[in-house]
Amino acid sequence: MRTPAYKQWRAGVESVKGCLKPIRLIGKWEARHAATGHLIASRQGRVWASCGTRRAAVCPSCADRYAADAWHLIHAGMSGGKGIPHTVATSPRLFATLTAPSFGPVHNRPGKRPCSCRRWHPEGHPQLGNPLNPQTYDYTGAVLWQAHSGQLWHRFTIALRRAIATAGGLTVRESGEHLRISYAKVAEYQRRGLVHFHAIIRADGPTGPDSPPPTWLTPDLLADAVRSAAAAVELETTRPDGTPLALRWGGQVDVKDITATDIDIEPGDDDEDQAVADTRLAGYIAKYATKGTGATDTGDRRIRSQTHINQLAVTEHHRAMIQTAWNLGGLDQYAHLNLRHWAHMLGFRGHFLTKSRIYSTTFKHLRAERQQHQLRTALTDAGLPEDTETLVINDWQILGIGYDTPEQLELATAIGDRIRTTRQTRKE
In what side-by-side order are the strands of the sheet with 195-204? Predict the structure, then answer.
């Protein structure tokens, strides 16, 4: 028979959907009428809050929630909703992938041919992504490229706007009177430990998603501008010995036109396939926002010391990336990159999901919507109109983070798995 203590503990686990690092709090929450001070709803005692991480390796449950929010953010910019007009679906839209350049040959699976090492590698083979010759692989260049990849993307967006303006016979300043370019991108680690960026790029009119772009700005013109901008971008830095190092995008730039042809989607129409494709693509992009480096035991814990690096359970290639970032981080010339702080991310310092301001809604807005829903529910339960002005008071103190024993963690993991499985089944 389950004890009251266990039932209370399990209720806490279920309240945070099986979060693996819950924050246990004690205190109170109150919602009061703003004008009269009358108590509308309250809760006090011990409560649990989710850790809120985006990384599936740390907490699958919270990462699942993050991915759901990311899906709404990305999908709204593709098909409308969340304050974005549905007409954006017919604006020129591309799905673009920008990759890192080569810093040395690695083991791969090149289609019907064997790897350069003359062997066939099955999917998931531990050698995939590792250098053929670690002694000649440019680890310094790889880590410095990774550390500057965010700046490369920024320069790419500038070059893209310049390329589009030139194609339209405009200056960059003049182009702002005719069009706006927006995007949402997510970073994904490749097997070789370097990120590439998946991005939805959309062209709008001068006031943003509520206005159409000029007719001359076609998906083909936008695609050509993406390719030329990626090829034109270059960022100069130096190696530890002072040798110049030019950082560029890789030669592989994949661009697909995902512009919808009709926004009036009805069951049975061909455009229903477009709606399904948009939904799947948004899910495809969102899931990458929850991934780590792909290197076991990294991506979730910052490196503390050289001993920590020596004890990591990772491939020698990933260890070399981490070691290089750690070593470069100890040099004054790279102090601004803060590489030791980001050594566990193999030198990557950027956010995994970013967007331009006008692309769509924000994570902050999505979370505020959930809070407003909870408040409206409390008002309805109290018999008050939903538009009642309220004052929300929170007063909490932290009791602890995580679980007390491995057994509790194991049970919480099972509960979280069951909740996510049930939720996925309902979606299907």
Answer: 253-257, 93-98, 195-204, 180-189, 353-355
Distance between CA 39 and CA 31 in Å, rounded? 6
Tokens of 322: 């981490």
Closest CA to 260 of 175, 178, 200: 200
Contacts of 215 (CB under 8 A, 6+ apart): none
For the chain, the distance separating the N- and C-terminal CA atoms, rounded to the nearest angstrom, is 35
> Which residues, at least 6 apart from 235, have a Cβ–Cβ distance to it below 8 Å?
148, 151, 152, 155, 246, 247, 248
- Token readout for 75 is 């999908």
Cα separation of 409 and 18, whole Å?
9
Please give the Cα distance from 151 to 168 (Å, whole number).
26
For 224, the 3-state DSSP assignment is helix
Q: CA–CA separation, 373 vs 389, rounded Å?
A: 14
Q: Whose CA is closest to 358, among 174, 167, 211?
A: 211
What are the pLDDT tens digits along the chain (428 aa)? 478 888 889 989 998 999 999 999 999 988 888 888 888 888 888 889 999 888 887 888 998 888 888 899 999 999 899 889 998 988 999 999 999 999 999 998 887 788 888 888 888 888 888 999 999 999 999 999 999 999 999 999 999 999 999 999 999 999 999 999 999 999 999 889 999 999 999 999 999 999 999 999 999 999 999 999 999 999 999 999 999 999 999 999 999 999 876 544 333 444 456 666 788 888 878 887 777 666 544 556 789 999 999 999 888 999 999 999 999 999 999 999 999 999 999 999 988 899 999 999 888 888 888 888 877 887 787 777 877 888 888 899 999 999 989 999 999 999 888 988 887 776 65
Which secondary-structure segment (H or E) carries 205?
A: none
DSSP-derived letter for residue 184 is: E
Token couple for 318: 């990933």
* Three-class DSSP category at 207: coil
Produce one character per residue of 37-61: b if its CB has 16 or more CB atoms within 10 Å, e if not. Answer: eeebbeeeeebbebbebbbbbbbbb
Q: What are phi and psi of 246, to 5 degrees?
A: -90, 125
Angstrom distance (rounded) from CA 76 to CA 285: 13
- Helix ranges (H only) for 93-218 are 139-167, 172-175
**Phi and psi, residue 410, nearest 5°:** -65, -45
